[in-house]
């Protein structure tokens, strides 16, 4: 689910493969608007959906990562990807059809960034 910088891998992958660079963003919007097909409403819905998910996981990582580092954050991002994409996302068609590797990379980058930010705050 795309948001810079953590959404950069999926956006670059989409551009490199000729896919819609907003594909992951629209998939995030479908979490709130399951039946919607228009781009603008899906992108608009993606903002609060992605913000809530990112902040929520950030709070969880702040509580769980006792000695945060980018590497530990990235590993946590991998665990989050398994839940987000492997369990929850499978119930959402727009998420289910996204290429998996770029989405996992997004989660790894997200976790690494959170780990770095948390390390800098402690």
Walk me through this protein's architecture.
Helix content is 72%, strand content 0%. The protein is mainly α. The two termini are 28 Å apart.
The SS-based structural class is mainly alpha
The pLDDT mean sits at 93
Count of DSSP strands: 0
Could you say which overall geometry the principal axes of the C-alpha atoms support? globular
Question: Would you identify the regions where 5 or more consecutive residues have pLDDT less than 50?
Answer: none
| Tally of alpha and pi helices | 6
Report the span from N to C terminus.
Answer: 28 Å
Layout of helices and strands, plus pairs?
Blueprint: H1 8-17, H2 23-29, H3 39-64, H4 70-88, H5 93-96, H6 100-121
List keywords for this structure.
122 residues, globular, mainly alpha
């Amino acid at each position: 689910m795309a948001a810079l910088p953590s959404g950069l891998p999926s956006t670059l992958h989409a551009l490199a493969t000729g896919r819609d660079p907003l594909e992951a963003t629209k998939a995030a919007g479908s979490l709130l608007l399951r039946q919607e097909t228009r781009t603008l409403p899906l992108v608009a819905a993606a903002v609060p959906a992605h913000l809530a998910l990112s902040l929520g996981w950030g709070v969880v990582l702040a509580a769980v990562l006792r000695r945060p580092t980018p590497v530990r954050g990235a590993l946590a991002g991998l665990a989050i990807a398994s839940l987000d994409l492997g369990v929850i996302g499978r119930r959402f068609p727009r998420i289910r059809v996204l290429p998996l590797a770029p989405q996992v990379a997004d989660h790894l980058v997200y976790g690494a960034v959170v780990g770095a930010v948390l390390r800098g705050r402690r």
